[in-house]
Write a structure and sequence with these properties.
Structural class: mainly alpha
Order of helices and strands: HHEHHHEH
Number of domains: 1
Strand order of the largest sheet: 1-2
Distance between the termini: 29 Å
Strand content: under 5%
Oligomer: single chain
Helix content: 55-70%
């Protein structure tokens, strides 16, 4: 669980990250990069007009993703504690039943069956409680994933509107790509700067 809990499908990331003159949102299709942007890119030398991002590094360093991961870890810890609490309670009751049996404490079959039913009820309550916590966890994880994904997508669109790259790829989608094309640190810095402003 030390790894990031927020994972993104390759499709949604491709939609969020791969941007270009022909593949951006509809509102951007009619907006060509300014002449100054093109000139600046040409001045960079022989580098092609695309870049790449290491999404694992982004998720590890982006404060929004880190905050959501901490929230998910707290929820998971609470869920594990709840499971242990139920297990302990059930085991304690079963131990009392065993001691009662060994000491001939049950005066009738009905009293023993009543305790058996109590254990069954405790197990059912435990299952319902844990299932509810699991459902809440999964729902929160999906919302967190969408929030982070939407945030990254919005930033990349804004970022690329100023840079005018033909495409921004995911590093994981390539077998090899020139390290000089890596803009991961720049993206992380921009994401955190924007997120910190919102938090303040």
């Amino acid at each position: 669980m030390k790894q990031n809990l927020l994972k993104f499908s390759s499709l949604s990331l491709a939609l969020a990250i791969c941007l270009g003159a022909a593949s951006c949102g509809e509102g951007e299709k009619t907006q060509a990069p300014a002449a100054g942007v093109k000139a600046a890119k040409q001045a960079e030398g022989t580098l092609p007009n695309y870049r790449y991002v290491d999404i694992d590094t982004v998720l590890a360093k982006y404060n929004l993703a880190k905050d959501y991961n901490e929230e998910m870890l707290r929820m998971q810890t609470n869920m594990e504690s709840e499971v242990k609490r139920h297990e302990s309670s059930i085991q304690s009751f079963v131990s009392k039943m065993q001691n009662k049996m060994q000491n001939n404490g049950y005066l009738s079959q009905e009293s023993y069956k009543a305790d058996e039913q109590t254990v069954a009820n405790m197990q059912q309550n435990a299952q319902r409680s844990v299932a509810s916590l699991q459902s809440n966890f999964e729902s929160a994880a999906m919302k967190a994933q969408k929030a982070v994904n939407d945030s990254i997508e919005a930033f990349i669109k804004s970022y690329n509107a100023k840079r005018g790259y033909d495409a921004i790829f995911l590093k994981a989608a390539t077998l090899y790509i020139n390290p000089a094309l890596d803009i991961t640190d720049e993206v992380v810095e921009g994401l955190n700067a924007s997120y910190n402003k919102v938090k303040k």
